Amino acid sequence: MTLYPKLILDALATVRYPGTGKNLVEAEMIADNLRIDGMKVSFSLIFEKPTDPFMKSVIKAAEAAIHTYVSDEVEIAITTESKQAARPEPGKLLSQVKNIIGVSSGKGGVGKSTVAANLAVSLAKLGYKVGLLDADIFGPSMPKMFQVEDARPYAERVDGRDLIVPVEKYGIKLLSIGFFVDPDQATLWRGGMASNALKQLIGDANWGELDYFLIDLPPGTSDIHLTVVQTLALTGAIVVSTPQAVALADARKGINMFINDKVNVPILGLVENMAWFTPAELPENKYYIFGKEGAKKLAEEMNVPLLGQIPIVQSICESGDKGTPVALDENTMTGRAFLQLAASVVRQVDKRNVEMAPTEVVKMHK
Predict the structure, then answer these.
(1) Which among 19, 39, 134, 152 counts the fewest CB atoms within 10 Å?
(2) Which pTM value belongs to this model?
(3) Backbone angles phi, psi at 140, to 5 degrees
C-alpha cells in the first residue's frame, strides 16, 4: 500500500477537537511538517496551550483514525506544538518575586485569612510591592475582604502567553478562585482539579515584580499545601493560631508539616490571633477569653519566633465584612498591631535571606 498526504488528512478530518467541535483539518491543527516514509507517518498537532486538557485524547483519536481509515500497519509518530509559550518550570516560576510566604493554620476559625489580608495591607503601607493569592480553593474569602466580589480578571498577552491580570486593591495584586466560580455554589472538586486550578493562578498570571507574595493557604494539611511547596520555592511559612489549647494542638501539627524533611520550609514565626479582647469603651482593658499567651508559649517551646499578637476588637470583623481591612487605619489598636506584625515579618525574612546568602554577601551585611 502506498501512503500519500491526502489519505492521512482525510482520516484526520474525521477527528473532532472537543473544545470547538471542528475537525482537526478545519481547526488548522495539523502542522505543515507531515512526513511519509513507506509505512511511517509523522506530523505535529497544534494546540492553543501546552496545557490543553484534550491533548492526550486528541492524539489517541488521531492515531485511531489513521489505523481505521488508512491501515492498522501504519507506524505513527505524533508530536505537539502550541501557539502559546509553555509555562515556566516550577523552579523558575515567579522569577520577579523576591519573597514568597505561605500563611497557614492547623485548623479553621482562627482568623488566618484575616491575618493574611491585613498583613498584605500593612506590608503595602510600609512601601513594599505585594501580591496576595487566595489559595483556599474551597472557601475563598479574599474577594469579600477586599470588596472586589464583582471583579472578573481578564487575560493579556505577555511574551507569547495569555496571562491572567490580578485584581488590584489597596496597592495589592490579588487573585482568588472566588473570581471564577459562582459564590452561591459549593466548589465540588477533587484534589487534582483544585491543585491544577491553583497552579494556573500561580503560573498563568502576570504577577510582575513583587517584594512579597503572600499565599493564604487552606486550613489544615492537604494537597494544596503540597502543590504550593512543589510548585514554588517558599521563603518561609507563617502559622496562625489562637491561644486556645485545641487550636495550639493543630498549630503544632502545622509547624511540623512545614519542617518535615519532605517539605522542608522554614517557619518564619507564629502569629497569636485573638490574643485578648479589648472593648472599644475600655481600650486599656484586656480579657483573655481564649487563654493567655498560649501561642507565645508554643513559639518558645518549638523555638520559633512569635511575630505578633493580634487582639480581638469588633472593628476587625466589621472591616472584613465591609471589604476595608482594619490595617488600612494605622491609628487604631489593630492597625498598629498589624503594622508591627508586618515589620516583624520583614525582619525575619531579611534575617533568613542573609543566612541563606553566600559568605561574601553575609560579610557585606556585617
Answers:
(1) 152
(2) 0.73
(3) -65, 130
**Residue 46 cell numbers, joined:** 497544534
Residues 130 and 120 sit within 8 Å (Cβ to Cβ): yes
Which one, of 206, 302, 197, 307, lies nearest residue 259 by Cα?
302
Longest dimension (CA), the chain: 93
User: Which residues make Cβ contacts (< 8 Å) with residue 136, sequence separation at least 6?
Assistant: 113, 216, 217, 218, 219, 224
In 3D space, the residue among 121, 111, 42, 117 whose CA is nearest the CA of residue 80 turns out to be 42
Give Cβ neighbours of residue 127 (< 8 Å, ≥ 6 apart).
none
Helix axes 294-302, 245-259, angle to 10 degrees: 30
Render pLDDT for 35-90 as a digit per residue (tens, 0 to 9). Answer: 999 999 999 999 988 878 899 999 999 999 999 999 999 999 999 988 876 666 65
Distance CA 123, CA 127 (A): 7
Contact 188/158 with Cβ under 8 angstroms? Answer: no
Q: Calculate ∠ Cα 275-278-284, nearest 5°.
A: 110
Is the pLDDT higher at 39 or at 323? 39
CB 122 within 8 A of CB 338: yes
Q: DSSP characters for 305-355?
A: -EEEEEEE-HHHHHHHHHT--GGG-TTSHHHHHHHHHHHHHHHHHHHHHHH
Q: How many whole angstroms separate alpha carbon 274 and alpha carbon 257? A: 23
Place of cell 471542528: 22
